[in-house]
Amino acid sequence: MNPELRRNFWLQFSLPRLIIAPLASGMVLLLVWLVTGHSAAALGETAKWLYLLIVLLWGTRRAADLIAEEVAGGTWDGQRMSALGAWQMTWGKFLGGISYVWYAAAFAFAALVWAQGLLGIRPWRGDEAILLLHLLGIGVFGQVVAFLASLVVLRKQVMRRRLGVTLSQFAGLAASATASGPLGVSLIFRQRPAVDWFGWHWAGDLFALVTLALFLAWSLFGAYRQMRIELQFRSIPWAWMAFALFLMAYAEGLLYAPIVQGGGVFAAWLTGPFVIAILFTYAALFLEPKDVVRYRWLWAAVAAGESKRALTLLPQWIPVFLLAALGGFTLSLFGGLGRLPDVPILVGPFAEMAALGSSASFRVLPVAIVLCLLRDALVVLYFNFGPRRGRADFLAFIYLALAYFPVAGVLLALGATSLLPLVTPYPAAPPLISIGAPLTECVGMGLLVLHRARAAGRFKPAAA
Asked: Maximum Cα–Cα distance for the chain, whole Å?
């Protein structure tokens, strides 16, 4: 048996804990059974909500705290030096850490199945079986995401244990809500009898279950990749790119019918992946630590021609940014966003209609967006390469948010639209200005980042 899994089993299960879980759940369910006059429907509904409370509130909190409690107890460094591999550590710690939660939830889940049997429902057939599998899936999904988020936060905020646990639990709850609540694909697909994906017709509930299983697998794989980094294994950063490509294909399948009905222009096929690549670049940029020493090592490896070492040092955001850049330049080459009939209608109220009449403005807009993305990445690196790096990402986010929203809004309200390309992509700007303004900013920010990177490597003797 996995040593980490066995260790967690010994920590989680003791005789009093083995007794109290079924006793507590049984007393609640027995009370509902007696008060409602032996109502199987009330018992089933209570059992379902009791199960959800256990696996979502308690389960996500427990999964988010698995690493944090080891760090706080001073045992994590010792575990990192053990002979366990990354995959053994990942599933041993995760399954062992949440095992008691599922032991407690199992009694509520069993009561739900029993209540359905009393109502004449066969839970192992058809829609009811899919519903039960979905209930199991959202519980595991939320816990895996909370565990993954805790590993991400650990690399950025090791000393802030409580904040990291709370944020990680919130991430897990948000993931579960997305898979089952009003924000989720599950509700959308269950409201529709069928879902079209690349022209294939799926039953809505079955497609939601398959989607949940796929994202659950990706989340567990992400936790494994983060564990590899935490255990100091060298890895080529391909996983984030692979997930981005998967999500692009998944989204294109859902948009297949509207795109074909709209004429199937090439720009319509490429716009979704372009937007996803931009969002993934920002996500990786802010979630990943940005150590100036690591970037200097990367530059030295590239300069020395050590391609394999350079790949292991490559930040996650760079490959996805290159994918976004490829998409942006390809969009511009094939007519840009002006080929999409709805785009001028959406931006028309906020721009000069005369300028929007030029197709060249929309043709270069994707390139302008890519240049603004590069400028923003350099701004984030500039703050992280400075002397005060504790809140660098937060400060960079505030500066970028101010530029994109209040500053751009003030310039638009004052009629100074000629200055808008300095802060945000503006489709009404002349093509030369739309590209030239962010390109100039990229050059300036690149020089500032390079200066800070070089300054970080200089020896500074301590004052006497």
From this structure: 84
